[in-house]
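User: Predict the complex with NAP.
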Amino acid sequence: MKAFVTGAGGYIGLDLIKGLLDGGHEVRGLARNPARLHNLTDLGVEAVLGDIRHPETISGLLDGMDVIFHLAGTMVGNERNIYRTNVEGTRTLVDAAAAAGLKTFVLASSGTVYGEHGDEPVTEESDCHPVMAYGRSKLEAERIVMNEAKVGFSGVICRLGGVYGPRSQMLMLENAGRTQVRLVGRGHNWMSAIHVEDASAALLAAAERGRSGEIYNIVDNEPVQLKDFYNYLAYRLGAPEAKHISEATARRLARIVGFFGRLTGKAVVFNADFVKMILSSLRLSNEKMRRELGVELKYPNYRSGIDAILQELGVGAAV
Ligand SMILES: NC(=O)c1ccc[n+]([C@@H]2O[C@H](COP(=O)([O-])OP(=O)(O)OC[C@H]3O[C@@H](n4cnc5c(N)ncnc54)[C@H](OP(=O)(O)O)[C@@H]3O)[C@@H](O)[C@H]2O)c1
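Assistant: Here is the predicted structure with NAP placed in the model:
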């Protein structure tokens, strides 16, 4: 296939591109930041520059492609900024993909669209009540792709859980190695994660075997309580177990960080919404992903994923 990848220079984008190239596919990658173009050209990929908030920069870039993997997105900034990228940017790409006659549109959405679900297992049929601007924007982006999928290309929605891997922010390896990880609250809330290699394989499978208008949760087999994920990581690194900070302290800190963000005009990640996200609880089922997309997970749970990463990086104690 000829694949157009947005967010090509991002964490998942680069991994997905490697998978596409290994599978013999042709790739054209969209980067926004010229300084990151070499990441793509070094891989031997055709790299193009554009900003999805500005439709004129996207015009013509999708011509000749079969499939788009739309990964460009942000969770940083205020609601307006997030919507401009995640919602209006998706609208721009949907229009461009329809105009260029693409066959398939794969959207990298997020499990955050479900919002808070406590201990209950969450399937693609579960209710969506996103608790943060990012989740709301992803849900809106999904609707845009779904609507076009009724009349134009095949649209497939991938709701990714927390994606971790070597150099991922989620693993916080630098922090975890040196100091104690700080968890907000007791860490009893559930998270559904997936290793980046498996996430990339699932996105590819979604393009090849996903049904139009369908949603797939993209997570591993084993939801995990936050404390268990980070304590396992600490154990494997020989580091102290995660420390806890209270929810009230985290909220206060987020207000202060947000205040300085507004003062300096800098977009900050650690804001009130971010605290809501790390406190929410989600046990996503991947049954549909395995059944319909036929994804065979290389890392079926967080332990196997973390072990492989530490081994690859040559850090941590042997198990
Ligand atoms: N990582 C996760 O745990 C996770 C979980 C659920 C869903 N997702 C979704 O999966 C996708 C990829 O995530 P990721 O972790 O790879 O994120 P990432 O590393 O932050 O990469 C995001 C990419 O989007 C690009 N981008 C942002 N705004 C853009 C714009 N206006 N125009 C063009 N490109 C733009 C960035 O380009 P520049 O670098 O040039 O700025 C970057 O390459 C995102 O849509 C994210 O919401 C990720």
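Residues 6-7, 9-13, 31-33, 36, 51-53, 71-74, 85, 89, 108, 110, 160, 162-163 surround NAP (CB under 6 Å).
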